């Protein structure tokens, strides 16, 4: 077997020429959907992250093209309806989407074009994985990548309800859920995601999460020096932080950017539905069934007596001509 | 004279007199009941496989997770159609009556085997009525929330926040359905002589006398009149 690929620290490097073995192994999985006893991994991968610097984005959609090409998806050709989004939304064939917002800044009275690259945020606490009922359909690796394993996916759409960012889309043909993989297949062989590699302005960077936070802080400082007082890093702690982060010029109002959630977290409804309530419910149903069986074995059954059969015969034979009036007696 | 039915349904009649057997459910009603029951069992098993990871293996009975995901809502729609037919036949005799209050208050006597202390009843007792209306209500909740989360055909029917509530309510309603299902099946087994009402269609006169005396009295009084009225 060939040598294992190194863990990638950048998307900028070109791939090595010699064949390398995958370095993202089944044993690197730390969470598995609908599975409670995941074996502790033998090693811990360095957490990775993609940093999207919204202030540098020019909306060219090279990232979308690179995503389509690398993942070999085939988004439908759509009608132009007068907006820049294309396609109209994330789809099972479009894992990332430039979303365009026209914003009139009330403070400066300046027009701002806020362009955000939407896609899976790779939450540290993934709502999709929590909601999923199919064992092994969603996994989380120790480097932070949340990946859908289509072979195990049943297409129920529970991940759609679980996700705080409205990301998963269910294929109408394959009936499996689809989303950005953070190019787990590229990361496995030491490469950064295709979108980051394709970005012409370096608005998308990729590396260890630590490096990306450092880079983000530099960018935030720069933006602040240029008058964006509220510039900041979007790494929402409500979902334990994310492995896709944004540098925002208006970090105090994330929702300006096409409805990026201000404080995303797994909905309490989903937590209630998927939490201990399930086990309690199962126990209640089990106890009821067991109680019925025990009562059936030990309690005296409700049996009709021969006396009652006689009474019935009496009633049926002699009631025939009895007056109606004494029925209620 | 005895043409108006109060406690019995069309088709209910004294079938034989020595010994007494009473027709409780027509063939059509029995088929209707068992179609509903079969749907319910498929729904409970397939639903439980999504309810808890430890039961996911049950999807194997239906050909895997994808097949189960496809089948569950379709069987749900069949159940709703089937249950509606049952509902149309049974709702009237399941309306609450005065004697249900006393019967419910003395339910302890029933469980201790002193059924003679309970009031005389028509075709259904208060327990059966609770099962009937409980199932009816839960099925309405299940089909409503079920359609909201039917990804294959109604992916955009409701917003995601509504969908979260729907999926939780669906699971909770299903749990109550399981409890009612257990009560229903167990009561039919514990009360000996009941199951034949849904298999052969008849019960013994003694069974009718013991559990549903007003119903038996009405049928006794109706002998000779057209049973289909």
Quick take:
The complex is a heterodimer of chains A (329) and B (229). With 329 residues, chain A is of the alpha+beta class.
Structural class of chain B: mainly alpha
What is the CATH architecture term of the largest domain in chain A?
A: 2-Layer Sandwich
Along the chain, the helix and strand elements of chain A come as EEHEEHEEHEEHHEHEEHHH
Kindly report how far apart the N and C termini of chain A lie.
Answer: 94 Å
Largest sheet descriptor of chain B: 3 strands, antiparallel
E-strand count of chain A:
11
Whole-angstrom Rg of chain A? 29 Å
The structural domain count of chain A equals 2
Mean pLDDT metric of chain B? 94
CATH homologous group name of the largest domain in chain B: Transmembrane di-heme cytochromes, Chain C
Q: Helicity range of the residues of chain B?
A: 55-70%
Number of strands of chain B: 3
**Overall form of chain B:** elongated
Q: Report the helical percentage of chain A.
A: 25-40%
Description:
The complex is a heterodimer of chains A (329) and B (229). With 329 residues, chain A is α+β, with helices and mostly antiparallel strands. Chain A has two domains: 26-266, 2-Layer Sandwich (Alpha-Beta Plaits); 277-328, no CATH class. Chain A has helices spanning 62-71, 127-131, 158-162, 184-187, 194-198, 209-225, 268-274, 276-298, 306-319, and strands spanning 29-32, 48-53, 97-104, 111-118, 138-141, 146-148, 169-170, 177-178, 204-208, 232-234, 244-248. Chain A has a four-stranded mixed β-sheet. In chain A, strands 1-5-6 form a three-stranded antiparallel β-sheet, with no helix packed on it. The longest helix of chain A has 23 residues, at 276-298. Chain B has 229 residues and is mainly alpha-helical. Chain B is built from nine helices and three strands, in the order ββαααααααβαα. Chain B has helices spanning 27-51, 65-90, 98-105, 107-111, 126-148, 160-190, 196-199, 205-211, 213-221, and strands spanning 13-17, 20-23, 202-204. Chain B has a three-stranded antiparallel β-sheet. The interface between A and B is large, with 55 and 65 residues.
């Amino acid at each position: 077997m060939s040598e294992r690929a190194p863990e990638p620290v950048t998307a900028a490097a070109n791939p090595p020429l010699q064949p390398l073995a995958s370095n993202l192994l089944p044993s690197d999985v730390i969470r598995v959907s609908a599975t409670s006893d995941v074996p502790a991994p033998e090693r811990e991968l360095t957490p990775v992250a993609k940093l999207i610097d919204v202030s540098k984005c020019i909306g060219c959609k090279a990232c979308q093209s690179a995503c389509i090409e690398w993942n070999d998806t085939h988004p439908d050709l759509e009608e132009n309806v007068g907006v820049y989004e294309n396609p109209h939304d994330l789809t099972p064939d479009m894992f990332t989407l430039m979303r365009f917002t026209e914003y009139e800044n009330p403070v400066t009275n300046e027009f701002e074009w806020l362009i955000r690259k939407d896609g899976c945020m790779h939450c540290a606490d993934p709502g999709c994985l929590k909601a999923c009922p199919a064992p092994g359909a969603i996994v989380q690796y120790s480097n932070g990548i949340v990946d859908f394993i289509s072979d195990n996916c049943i297409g129920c759409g529970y991940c759609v309800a679980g996700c705080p960012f409205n990301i998963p889309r269910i294929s109408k043909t394959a009936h499996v859920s689809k989303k950005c993989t953070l190019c787990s297949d590229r990361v496995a062989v030491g490469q950064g995601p295709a979108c980051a590699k394709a970005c012409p302005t370096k608005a998308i960077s990729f590396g260890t999460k630590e490096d990306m936070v450092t880079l983000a802080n530099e960018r935030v400082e720069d933006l602040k020096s240029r008058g964006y007082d509220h510039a900041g890093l979007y790494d929402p702690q409500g979902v334990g932080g994310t492995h896709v982060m944004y540098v925002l010029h208006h970090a105090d109002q994330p929702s300006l950017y096409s409805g990026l959630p201000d404080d995303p977290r797994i909905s309490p409804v989903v937590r209630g539905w998927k939490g201990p309530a399930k086990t309690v419910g199962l126990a209640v149903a089990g106890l009821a069934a067991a109680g019925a069986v025990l009562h059936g074995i030990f309690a005296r059954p409700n049996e009709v007596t021969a006396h009652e059969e006689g009474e019935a015969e009496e009633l049926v034979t002699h009631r025939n001509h009895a007056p109606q009036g004494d029925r209620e007696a | 004279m005895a043409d108006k039915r109060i406690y019995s349904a069309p088709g209910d009649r004294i079938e034989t007199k020595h010994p007494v057997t009473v027709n409780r459910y027509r063939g059509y009603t029995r088929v209707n009941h068992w179609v509903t029951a079969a749907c319910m069992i498929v729904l409970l098993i397939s639903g439980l496989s999504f309810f808890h990871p430890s039961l996911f293996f049950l999807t194997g009975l239906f050909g895997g997770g994808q097949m189960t995901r496809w089948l569950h809502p379709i069987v749900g729609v069949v159940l709703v159609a089937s249950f509606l037919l049952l509902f149309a036949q049974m709702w009237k005799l399941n309306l609450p009556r005065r004697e249900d209050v006393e019967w419910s208050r003395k339910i302890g006597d029933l469980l201790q085997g002193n059924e003679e202390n309970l009031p005389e009843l028509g075709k259904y007792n208060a327990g059966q009525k609770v099962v009937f209306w409980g199932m009816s209500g839960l099925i309405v909740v299940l089909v409503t929330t079920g359609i909201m989360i039917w990804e294959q055909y109604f992916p955009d029917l409701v917003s995601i926040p509504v969908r979260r509530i729907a999926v939780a309510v669906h699971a909770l309603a299903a749990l109550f359905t399981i409890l009612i299902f257990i009560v229903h099946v167990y009561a039919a087994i514990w009360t000996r002589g009941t199951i034949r009402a849904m298999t052969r269609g008849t019960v013994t006169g003694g069974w009718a006398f013991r559990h549903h005396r007003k119903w038996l009295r009405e049928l006794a009084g109706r002998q000779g009149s057209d049973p289909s009225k």
